């Protein structure tokens, strides 16, 4: 909430009639109070708060009801591997939604303006641009194929009319510029309309080419290629709040890049042991703090998160803080280490908290407390007694992502059977929803689902043994400002919005 | 409450994992979880007696570091394969999940006989318009 001392209001404002009902409406408030009195300050801050939060105030954090909005992609029994979506990301204002797939392609969707301005506004997106970001490569030295699968996409904050995003596969990061073109110059002297050379002898007069409107074209062009900096597979990229640098993390190292410079990067974390036999943990995810440009975190396969401050040292091998939940070493099982491996770490928008995803739960950590998470949510605890079969079919190694809502009040993550879970932090309410083809009528409210693990199964519940482990929701994204979510279900992209 | 749950566990083959055991103490919950995990571990060990000694952690590390594109040739494997021709044959390794059972290293691949993976020339189906 902004302090009223920073609000430049020289004279007392008459309180407008149209503000929300929580603003006081004493008629003579304007006349009797000066702008600096405490009561006026409170009223001003109330007004400002309501003016900026009118979209989000639903009373006291009422439960969100989710409705189907759109689904993209084809219905197919045999999904081609290239079509499997491998990342989903909204840009900083939510107007654009990017997806990357295993075939190295990026598809960008844009918010439909008509549906956005409709009342109630609908979360609808149309295809804006698509391009081949990465192609399969071959490392001849190691005799290894390099997959073109897009591991991560991160948008840069928009500073001009063009959009920029970073996309990465296992080895190479690329900066793409997405620009609109809706005018073209016409009336050249030496070329005709088709671009053919004009017969010079037929030119009798000079003319000045003029820009004429044309059909909108969206062009994506690679602006920078950041290659050959990672020996191991890149798992994360994160743009810094300074808008000049970004980090890229692989299993053992984290590098800091300047967006302008492609032939150098600083190594800021290196956990590779001198003897690879002594390796016990790898880096699983990394992210810059949303506001402090010198701080970043990285999570490990052992379930710990390290916060590093780049001001301390050039090489941040010594962490400033380490967040880990104490575990009794005698009580471990074969699976303990596998399921405690963190697959994703995300800072809250406020920067005060971060959420981590391990195989069975989502945890919220307060940056001020390293000893344990402040909140723990069970995603699919019923899988704990299926760990043996999940190990056999490799599902235990699946890496799920987690997302914050724009107001940091909700957390979302995916599960199996095309289920995804929403957790409400204030009231500790949670629900399980399904992304399925049966519900494709817009505005249909999603029915909460329930999984039963015991012998007694209620009607509408699904038994653990009937879950489809091939239908996994690993990648999800939450619109930064509104309650719209994008869910990647194998080769389909679902968009759901909350009922307003 | 605790004694009831112990009976439940030993009698029924597929037990309910209590997610919302508000009555029992936090510690009991933790112990229960570990017992469930340990039972799953027993199941795994009975299926794969030669499970990697490093535990789940090393399985996880192997999985992560070996992820990625297909490996066509390993000079170490090639050397071993050549040595095997002269040395006495060892029994084949048990079909373990941990050990990568891939026949690399038998032949030396050349750029000509590796099938070049072409990029996806087809536009993504997501971009071909929504279905609804």
Structure description:
The complex is a heterodimer of chains A (500) and B (132). With 500 residues, chain A is mostly beta strands. Chain A is 7% helix and 37% strand. In chain A, the strands form 9 sheets. In chain A, strands 1-32-31-30 form a 4-stranded antiparallel sheet, with no helix packed on it. Chain A starts with 28 loop residues before the first helix and ends with a strand. Helices cover 41% and strands 0% of the residues of chain B. Chain B contains 4 helices and no strands. Chain B is flat and about 65 Å long. In chain B, 14% of the residues are buried. The N terminus of chain B is likely disordered. Classes of the chains: A mainly beta (500), B mainly alpha (132). Chains A and B meet through β1, β5, β7, α4 and α5 of A and α2 and α3 of B.
Distance between the termini of chain B: 52 Å
Beta-strand percentage of chain B? under 5%
Oligomer: heterodimer
How far the N terminus sits from the C terminus of chain A, by CA atoms, comes to 24 Å
CATH architecture call of chain A: 7 Propeller
């Amino acid at each position: 909430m902004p302090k009223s001392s920073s609000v430049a209001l020289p004279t007392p404002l008459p309180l407008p009639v149209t503000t929300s009902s929580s603003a006081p409406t004493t008629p003579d408030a304007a006349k009797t109070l000066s702008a600096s009195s405490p009561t006026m300050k409170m009223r001003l801050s109330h007004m400002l708060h309501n003016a900026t939060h009118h979209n989000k105030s639903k009373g006291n954090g009422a439960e969100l009801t989710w409705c189907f909005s759109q689904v993209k992609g084809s219905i197919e029994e045999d999904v081609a591997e290239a079509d499997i979506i491998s990342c989903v990301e909204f840009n900083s204002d939510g107007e654009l939604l990017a997806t990357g797939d295993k075939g190295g392609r990026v598809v960008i969707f844009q918010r439909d303006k008509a549906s956005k301005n409709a009342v109630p506004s609908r979360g609808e997106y149309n295809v804006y641009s698509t391009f081949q970001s990465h192609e399969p490569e071959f490392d001849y030295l190691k005799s290894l194929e390099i997959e073109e699968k897009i591991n991560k996409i991160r948008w840069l904050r928009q500073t001009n009319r063009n959009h920029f995003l970073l996309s990465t596969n296992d080895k190479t990061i690329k900066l793409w510029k997405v620009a609109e073109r809706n005018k073209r110059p016409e009336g050249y002297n030496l070329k005709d309309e088709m671009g053919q050379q004009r017969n010079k002898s037929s030119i009798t007069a000079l003319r000045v080419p003029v820009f004429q409107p044309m059909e909108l074209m969206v062009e994506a062009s690679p602006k920078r290629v950041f290659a050959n900096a990672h020996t191991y597979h890149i798992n994360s990229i994160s743009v810094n709040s300074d808008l000049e640098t970004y980090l890229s993390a692989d299993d053992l190292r984290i590098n800091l890049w300047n967006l302008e410079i492609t032939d150098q990067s600083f190594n800021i974390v290196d956990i590779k042991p001198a003897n690879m036999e002594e390796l016990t943990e790898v880096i699983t995810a990394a992210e810059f703090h949303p506001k402090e440009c010198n701080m970043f975190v990285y999570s490990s396969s052992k379930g710990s998160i390290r916060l590093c401050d780049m001001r301390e040292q050039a090489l941040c091998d010594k962490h400033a803080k380490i967040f880990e939940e104490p575990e009794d070493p005698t009580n471990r099982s074969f699976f303990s280490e596998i399921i405690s491996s963190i697959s994703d770490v995300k800072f809250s928008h406020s920067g005060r908290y971060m959420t981590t995803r391990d195989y069975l739960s989502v945890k919220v950590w307060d940056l001020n407390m390293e000893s344990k998470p402040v909140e723990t949510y069970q995603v699919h605890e019923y899988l704990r007694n299926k760990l043996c079969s999940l190990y056999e079919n490799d599902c235990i190694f699946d890496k799920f992502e987690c997302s914050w809502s724009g107001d940091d009040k909700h957390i979302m993550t995916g599960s199996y059977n095309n289920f995804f879970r929403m957790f409400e932090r204030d009231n500790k309410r949670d629900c399980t929803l399904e992304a399925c083809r049966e519900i494709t009528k817009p505005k249909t409210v999603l029915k909460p689902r329930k999984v039963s693990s015991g012998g007694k199964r209620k009607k509408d519940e699904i038994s653990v043994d009937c879950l489809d482990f091939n239908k996994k929701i690993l990648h999800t994204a939450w619109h930064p400002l509104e309650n719209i979510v994008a869910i990647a279900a194998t080769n389909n992209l679902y968009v759901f919005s909350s009922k307003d | 409450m605790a004694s009831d749950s112990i009976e439940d566990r030993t009698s029924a083959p597929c037990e309910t994992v209590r997610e919302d055991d508000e009555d029992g103490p936090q510690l009991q919950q933790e112990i229960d979880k570990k017992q469930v995990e340990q039972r799953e571990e027993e199941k795994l060990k009975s299926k794969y007696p030669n499970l990697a000694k490093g535990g789940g952690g090393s399985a996880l590390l192997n999985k992560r570091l070996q992820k990625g594109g297909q490996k066509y040739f390993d000079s170490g494997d090639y050397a071993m394969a050549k040595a095997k021709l002269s040395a006495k044959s060892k029994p084949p390794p048990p079909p373990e999940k941990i050990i990568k059972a891939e026949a690399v290293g038998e032949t030396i691949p050349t750029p000509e006989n590796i099938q070049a993976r072409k990029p996806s020339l087809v536009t993504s189906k997501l971009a071909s318009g929504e279905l609804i």
